[in-house]
Amino acid sequence: METPVSAFYKIGASDYSFLLESVEGGEHVARYSFLGSDPSILLRSRGNLVRIDDLRTGETVELETEDPLEVLEELMTRYQPVEVEGLPRFHGGAVGYLNYDMVRFVEDLPDTTEDDRELPDCFFMVTDTLLVFDHVNHQIKVVANAHINGDVDQAYEHALDQIDELIAKLKQPLLTNYTNKPTSSPSSVPVTSNFTKEDYHQVVLRAKEYIAAGDIIQVVPSQRFSVPISVDTFDAYRALRTVNPSPYMYYLKFDELQIAGASPEMMVRVEDGSCGDAPNRRHPPAWSDPGRR
User: What does the record list as coiled-coil region(s) (predicted)?
Assistant: First the structure.
């Protein structure tokens, strides 16, 4: 039986691919998994500089803008998907990430943190083809979005060829380098943080002061942990989905940059002009007595 993981080994071998999954949840949360690869367009930004790569033509456009989000919005207005009965709300489009620094294009905030990673602030891939796993009906839908820029029949035939190509890849035998044998015990893996224990303690104390003063209502004092690995990052994602199955899981492959994660909640959804979220955050108790804070 084909699974999203086995299909990714067959389909996601390109430099740019993604897997979006709901590993647990009800029908409306965990019904679909989405797998895409071989995008037609790449968009990335860093600061005010934006780069767009058209992988179909080999053309690259670099520009400077006041707001990279407006460039992304303009790019997506070129795509007007047709509603097809039986397909989920997502059946192709831009998949990627926005980092925390992108908030500065929405709100005027200070930028005091050293950027020691030099990664893109945002990175999106636009895919024309997609595998949709329907876990309720036990079906795999192979989707190809046809771009109608001229000859309709030619665009339709090209989409059919893309579907046939994906099906042929799915029929191939599964060949992986996966092994169950650990390379080292957990106690022998060195873990480093971008904070010392004392520095992190001071951050927590300062956050509590902000809350007590009414400047903020909640905060996530995060820190970055780093460990060396000798396994493929997708195998690390497989382990994550086993130890922490979640309604929202993702694996994004941007050539040498791979991102894997799991979340119990949806951050935000915009649909038919309406914006909503589904928060599941835990809040500390609010005391009226300042001495109990």
Answer: none
CA–CA gap between residue 3 and residue 12 (Å, rounded): 13
Q: Of 115, 233, 235, which Cα lies nearest the Cα of 181? A: 235
Residues 6+ apart with CB under 8 A from 214: none
Q: Is residue 154 part of a domain?
A: yes
| Residue 19 CB coordination number (10 Å) | 27
Residues of the chain where predicted confidence (pLDDT) is lower than 70 = 24-29, 176-187, 278-293
Which residues lie across from 60 on neighbouring strands?
Answer: 53
> Which parts of the chain fold into alpha helices (H)?
4-11, 27-30, 68-76, 152-170, 197-213, 233-243
- Say how many domains are in the chain: 2
pLDDT of residue 290: 47
